[in-house]
Design goal:
Layout lengths: L18 H16 L9 H21 L24
Helix pairs in contact: 1-2
């Protein structure tokens, strides 16, 4: 487990995870799995694509989670296409 990746769901995170939170977690995950802090030029495209795909999977996970015992709904509201153009 990457120690620098924090839990992004309530009640651990008091507010909704931001796009920056999600991107940072995805970046840390890809760095850990690949073994590279920063990719070489010939690996940059695949590295950045992996970060975008992990971030998208994280958004979908957080959007679908329901936390029992929570007084309010904890599902994330989907951002209006904000940050969705960073893949491909």
């Amino acid at each position: 487990m990457c120690r620098s990746i924090k839990t992004l769901r309530p009640p651990v995170l008091p507010e909704e995870a931001t796009e920056d939170d999600i991107h940072a977690a995805a970046l840390q995950y890809v760095r850990k799995v690949s073994g590279f802090r920063a990719p070489a030029a010939h690996n940059r495209e695949v590295f950045e694509r992996a970060v975008a795909e992990v971030a998208e999977a994280t958004r979908k996970l957080l959007d679908g989670l329901e936390v029992r015992g929570s007084s309010a709904t904890t599902r994330r509201t989907a951002p209006a296409a904000a940050g969705s153009g960073d893949a491909a």
